[in-house]
């Protein structure tokens, strides 16, 4: 039986650049280019999980600006699970799009050794290269209504 998991995906955009990261010490062919994303904890609202995951994975504070929708993604054969992903547009402090910084997870949720990566800003027009279906709702950016909690 395939495990069903609830996930969030965060899109932070500034100056037509999307916040992404690439893993250190792991070939790009293995992890690809990713955006902040992760598992919704039991009892946690998806929007709250998005804010938490953004901060955990990038060290940046943020808030939800809009809900962009949901999609399903089959992670097999990497993991025997299917993810119901909730996509959010996020606001973060203003930054130079040339900025790069280190972040990571000392205790990855799925187990394994600590993970380290480099966060950076990718031109939005190039974001079609995102790994593992993480770009599924990029087309919704600019097509959404503001989240009433962000007003």
User: What's the total number of strands?
Assistant: 7
What sequence of helices (H) and strands (E) makes up the elements? EEHEHEEEE
- Poorly predicted segments: none
Average pLDDT across residues? 89
Number of helices: 2
DSSP strand content: 35-45%
What's the end-to-end separation, in Å?
42 Å
Shape annotation: globular
The major β-sheet equals: 7 strands, mixed
The gyration radius over C-alpha positions equals 15 Å
Structural class from helices and strands?
mainly beta
- How helix-rich are the residues, as a percent range? 10-25%
Task: Give a written overview of the molecule.
This protein has helices at residues 28-31, 46-58, and strands spanning 3-14, 17-23, 37-39, 63-74, 81-91, 100-105, 115-123. It is mostly beta strands. Strands 1, 2, 3, 4, 5, 6 and 7 form a seven-stranded mixed β-sheet that branches. The chain is globular, with a radius of gyration of 15 Å. The protein starts with a strand and ends in a 28-residue tail after the last strand. The model has no long low-confidence stretch (mean pLDDT 89).
